[in-house]
Write a structure and sequence with these properties.
elongated, single chain, Rossmann fold, alpha/beta, 5-stranded parallel beta sheet, 293 residues, 36% helix, 7-stranded parallel beta sheet
Length: 293
């Protein structure tokens, strides 16, 4: 296949070949199913795709939402049991730490929900400080805790200089594990509009600590494999990943061997064509595919 294929321009026979090329769907949520509100036709798309015998699960980098918030979002889109079929970084991070029988403290530069999930799984989390009074106070605060055995980054929108510096200090010890959840440089606000995310701060810590994190969010291969295991999928070539971001969603698909479909809610067709990394398929929105199903 040469270049991304616009699914809405496929002939009936070619569209059938497209449907026959996968058995399972992984879909991102923010920017694909909803922005502030449900995107038209997204829930109907999943209903119809399931009528074609496809199983559907959801994969998001957004650990910020509570379970109640996610359930409300899925319900508004007309999607049943969406939260039960959702994989997010906070879950992956907790399961990873359990898998290695981790027992030390976790220094968290993370959103409250990620910390809540880690604590619910029995891990002792430390964080902050949230602020310092000035230069001298900053210098006095730069102490590492020898009981910290892991540093976790995941969507801390209260991030500051002292948190970055504390994380780097801990990561200078080679025995401290470095785990990264969401690494999004940009976040979808509404169709066609992006806001800066927390990803650039992750990049600072990676550069200054000279450590590569275990990537337990998109586009990390380990995260994709974790999502597959949770969903019970075994053959990546039979999975279609639907997303709106090239760096997170399309790259995850490439890393894991999924087929990829980009919806143009956060990128233009020109953005997509100019990128070095391109999806296999694209469409304006999920709703634009509903008439074909």
């Amino acid at each position: 296949m040469i270049g991304p294929v616009n699914v809405t321009e496929l002939s009936a026979s070619a569209f059938k070949q497209f449907l026959d090329s996968f058995d399972h769907v992984f879909s991102d949520c923010d920017g694909v199913i909803w922005t502030n509100n449900t995107l038209p036709g997204s829930g109907e798309f999943f209903e119809k795709i399931k009528q074609h015998g496809k199983s559907v699960h959801y994969v998001s980098n957004n650990s910020l939402r509570t379970q109640e918030n996610y359930e409300g979002k899925f319900k508004a889109a007309g999607i049943e049991n969406g939260f039960e079929k959702l994989t997010i970084p906070s879950t992956a991070i907790a399961e990873y730490l359990k898998s290695i029988k981790f027992s030390k403290k976790v220094y968290c530069v993370a959103c409250p929900q990620t910390i809540k999930i880690l604590e619910a799984n029995g891990f002792e989390c430390v964080e902050g400080p949230e602020s310092v009074k000035g230069y001298e106070d900053y210098l006095k605060s730069l102490d590492g805790d020898p009981d910290v055995g892991a540093v976790v980054f995941d969507s801390d929108f209260r991030i500051n200089l002292i948190k970055l510096s504390t994380a780097i200090i801990h990561l200078r010890r080679p025995d401290v594990i470095f785990l990264n959840g969401a690494s999004d440089r940009y976040l979808p606000v509404k169709p066609g509009h992006l806001a800066l995310g927390t990803g650039p701060f992750n990049d600072i810590v990676i550069e200054e600590s000279k450590r590569e994190p275990i990537q337990l969010g998109k586009p990390g291969k380990i995260f994709g494999e974790f999502a597959m295991k949770r969903a019970g999928f075994t053959d990546p070539s039979r999975i279609l990943f639907i997303g709106d971001m090239i760096e997170q969603d399309v790259v995850l698909g490439k890393n894991c061997g999924f087929k990829t479909l980009l919806v143009l809610t956060s990128n233009t067709e020109e953005d997509m064509m100019a990128s070095n990394i391109k999806p296999d398929y694209y469409a304006e929105t999920l709703g634009s595919l509903v008439p074909l199903l």
